[in-house]
Write a structure and sequence with these properties.
The complex is a heterodimer of chains A (about 200) and B (about 150). Chain A has helices at about 5-15, 25-30, 35-45, 90-100, 105-115, 120-130, 150, 155-170, and strands spanning about 20, 50-55, 70-75, 135, 140, 175-180, 190-195. Chain A has about 200 residues and is an alpha+beta fold. In chain A, the strands form 2 sheets. Chain A has a 4-stranded antiparallel beta sheet. Chain A has a 3-stranded antiparallel beta sheet with strand order 1-3-2. The termini of chain A are far apart. Chain B has helices at about 20-35, 70-80, 85-90, 115-130, 145-149, and strands at about 1-10, 40-45, 55, 60-70, 95, 105-110. Classes of the chains: A alpha+beta (about 200), B alpha+beta (about 150).
C-alpha cells in the first residue's frame, strides 16, 4: 500500500501535519496535481491508513458556502504486517504483566538504559524510531507513541521505560535533556535541546 | 455518575526524612494541577494542609490518595497525560512496590464524597475477588453504562 512513493509522501505529510489536511494542501505539499493526490488519499482511506471527514475549510456556512471539503488524518487504528504471522504484541502484553507482577519495573528501566547511544541529531534518531518528532518552541515533542497499544494498558511501566530508552539513545548528545511531559494523544517524552 | 478512585502506597521513609524531600516538594504543585484539571471533582484532604499525607491505613504504614472525577478520561489524562507522570516515573524513589493491587475505581452518585472506609472496602473487593462492576481498574474497566442498563 505504501510502496508507491507519492502515496507514501502523502501519508507521511498527513501523519506529521498535526491537523486535518485538505486535498489541496496535501497536493501542494508533495508537489502533485490535486486529482492525483485525491486518488491516492482515498486509496489510503480505503486501506484504513487514513480517516476522512467533511469540513467547510473556508469557515463560512449556510447557503453559498459551498460543498464541504474532504479532510484527512491518520487513522487511529494500528496496522501490523508480518509474514509469516507473529504476535509480538500479545507477547509484549504478557511480558509487561509479568514485569509488574514480579515487581521488576527497575530491571526493565535498566535494560532500556543499556541501549547504545546514537550520535546523530535527536530529531533524526527519534524520527527513525517512529516517534514523529516536531519542534515546539525550545523543545522536541513527538506526535506518535511507538508503544501505544502497550502504554494504554501499562502507562507508568511503558512511559518510564520509554524515558530511559530515549535518554540512552540521545545519551551521546550533551545538549539534549529528556523529561516526561505527556499530552493527551502524544508521546510522553519531551527533549529540551540547549543552543550551545 | 462520577468516578471515584483510591490508590495506596507504602512510603520508604517518614515524611520528614530527607529521602522524601522531593516527594514532599511536589505535593503542592501536583495537587494544584489536579484541582485545576478538566473533570476534577474532589479529593480527600486531611485538614492539616492541602494534602492527605497524614491519613494512613494498616497501622500507619500505608498512605492514601482518594479522589472523584467526572469521567475515566479525566482521571486518565491527569494521572498519565500530564506533568504528574514525571512523578509516577520516579515513584520507586519514595514508595515500595506493592505486590497486591494498589488502586481501585468505582462509580458514585454525583455529589457523593467517598469515605476512606468505603474506599478501603472497594480495594479489598478488587484484591479478593478481582475486578468487577463494583470495584475495577483501568486495565479492567467497567463503563458506567454497564451499571445503568
Amino acid at each position: 500500500m505504501l510502496a508507491d512513493p507519492v502515496r507514501r509522501d502523502l501519508y507521511e505529510y498527513v501523519a506529521d501535519a498535526g491537523h486535518e489536511v485538505g486535498r489541496a494542501e496535501a497536493a501542494d505539499a508533495v508537489g502533485v496535481a490535486r486529482t492525483l493526490a485525491a486518488f491516492h488519499l482515498d486509496k489510503l482511506v480505503d486501506a484504513g491508513l487514513l480517516d476522512v471527514a467533511h469540513r467547510r475549510l473556508t469557515g463560512r456556512s449556510g447557503p453559498g458556502a459551498g460543498r464541504p471539503a474532504k479532510v484527512y488524518r491518520v487513522a487511529a487504528r494500528e496496522h501490523l504486517a508480518s509474514v509469516p504471522p507473529r504476535d509480538y504484541r500479545g507477547l509484549a502484553m504478557l511480558l509487561a504483566e509479568a514485569v509488574e507482577a514480579a515487581g521488576a519495573e527497575e530491571a526493565l528501566k535498566a535494560a532500556a538504559r543499556r541501549l547504545p547511544a546514537d550520535p546523530r541529531e535527536p530529531v533524526v534518531v527519534l524520527a527513525e524510531r517512529g516517534y514523529r518528532p516536531y519542534r515546539d518552541g525550545g523543545v522536541i515533542r513527538c506526535r506518535n507513541c511507538p508503544f501505544h497499544a502497550l502504554s494504554a494498558q501499562f502507562p507508568v511501566l511503558v512511559c518510564a521505560m520509554n524515558y530511559e530508552l530515549i535518554e540512552a539513545l540521545l545519551g551521546g548528545d550533551a545538549r539534549a535533556r529528556v523529561r516526561l511531559d505527556p499530552l493527551p494523544g502524544e508521546c510522553c517524552v519531551v527533549v529540551e535541546v540547549s543552543k550551545n | 455518575m462520577h468516578l471515584a478512585q483510591l490508590n495506596v502506597a507504602r512510603p520508604r521513609a517518614s515524611m520528614d526524612d530527607p529521602q522524601m524531600a522531593n516527594f514532599k516538594a511536589a505535593l503542592d504543585p501536583v495537587n494544584l494541577l489536579a484541582d485545576a484539571a478538566p473533570g476534577f471533582v474532589w479529593r480527600l484532604r486531611d485538614g492539616f494542609g492541602g494534602d492527605a499525607t497524614t491519613i494512613r491505613l494498616a497501622g500507619g504504614e500505608i498512605m492514601v490518595n482518594l479522589s472523584v472525577w467526572d469521567s475515566r478520561d479525566a482521571l486518565w489524562n491527569f494521572a498519565y497525560r500530564s506533568p504528574h507522570m514525571e512523578y509516577l516515573r520516579r515513584r520507586r524513589e519514595w514508595f515500595h512496590q506493592l505486590v497486591e493491587p494498589y488502586q481501585v475505581m468505582w462509580w458514585v452518585p454525583v455529589g457523593h464524597r467517598p469515605t476512606v472506609a468505603e474506599a478501603e472496602d472497594r480495594l479489598k473487593t478488587v484484591r479478593s475477588e478481582g475486578p468487577g462492576p463494583a470495584a475495577f481498574t483501568f486495565r479492567n474497566f467497567y463503563p458506567m453504562e454497564i451499571l445503568t442498563t
